[in-house]
DNA sequence: AAATAACTTGACCGAGCAGTCAGGTTTGGT
DNA sequence: ACCAAACCTGACTGCTCGGTCAAGTTATTT
């Protein structure tokens, strides 16, 4: 490890490499992928500092030394877990594109983000934990890729506003609030479950949350008309 | 520490106690209070596991052994920091009471929560971090005090709905979303700042966030009329 | 089937950790 | 002035941690 200049993603992926990189790599790749998936809950529940190599080894089913062989350091393992999650986050906003109607686009986006919260709660928590602690491991991601993505989506929303399809709102803050509302069902599930008096969040709670988020956003932005109730 | 049956809040506060509990206690109390305030940022940035007694000692200006004298264990110190924050959280919802109009009540609540996010970001982060990791240190608080508070506020909102002052929504989920939207400006400030390209969140960002949250909630719940723009 | 690279592992190591303690100092009561 | 009790602290301790390593085993190429 003293000879490696820097731990760039390439260098990490290339840790066990020789000249004959054939089918044997696949085995390693599979083990690495499985380990990353199994390490996710550990980092989610304990954080980077709280997760020990012993607990990670137990979760992955590999001996500690073997984890070090594949990933080098705990930080590297953590960085790769984090990297796996980022792709997910960037993809979620696909439904927000110029050709779409704002109503269907936001509905789809909210549904997609809530699906992640339901199906990959640990990924969401690892991400939330990282940002909570200052996002030191993904400063560049936030300032570059995510920022570009947000600029792109903000432009789409600006377009809808210009076309009179929705009220004038700050598109970036709208995205921040969408993230907050959808991720709260993953990140703060223990709080929501405790307050509701249920052991864990189920389909009902997600459905109720989704309905309310959609209502607040679509009516709040003047996309849907107000309730047919009165007036 | 072996003689103490359990670390109840009383037992913790009573750590350094004799028969003559007079004015000398005050000095200790002041030191403890100041230490709790200074420990907050450390726990916020590093989490419970990541915060070391050495870093806490440096932050409080006390020697490590002295911290142990006043608080016993790191967990006890953390628990007291957490407890200090809970009162804040319960008080924030004062504006939501039966006599109020929903519009002014929600406006005031959003303003109050965002004030906490701006002025006590570390408190918010410690709380968020605790819940993110399963809320093991405040299960009872969530299930009892907070749950009661939420039941109480939910009843108020139900009342407003019954009076036709706002649309029918799930009041509990509305509170969850209010928490999520207001706390995101404290807990995920590094993400928001990075995406916006600013070094740190300022008054502008909080104002923009507040305006949008108010708009989404009041129009989304049918309290405010839709924009006077078109239609 | 021999050679070689990839992979695995138990045992080991030094650093840093939370917590302890004996002995000193300050403080408030009398 | 004297005495406890409260408070303070440097030095110490046992342990857990991340990381290393040499000696294995397994798989693939030729």
TrEMBL record, chains A, B:
Gene Ontology biological-process entries:
negative regulation of DNA-templated transcription
Q: Which residues bind DNA?
A: 52-71
Q: Which GO terms describe its molecular function?
A: DNA binding
| Record keywords | DNA-binding
Signal sequence segment: none
Q: Where is the HTH tetR-type domain?
A: 29-89
Q: Is Metal-binding found in the keyword set?
A: no
Q: Could you tell me which InterPro entries the record lists for this protein?
A: Homeodomain-like_sf, HTH-type_TetR-like_transc_reg, HTH_TetR, Tet_transcr_reg_TetR-rel_C_sf, Tscrpt_reg_YcdC_C
- Name the PANTHER family on file: HTH-TYPE TRANSCRIPTIONAL REPRESSOR SCO4008, TRANSCRIPTIONAL REPRESSOR
Name the record gives this protein:
Transcriptional regulator, TetR family
Tell me what organism the protein belongs to: Acidiphilium rubrum
Could you read off the lineage of the organism from its UniProt record? Bacteria, Pseudomonadati, Pseudomonadota, Alphaproteobacteria, Acetobacterales
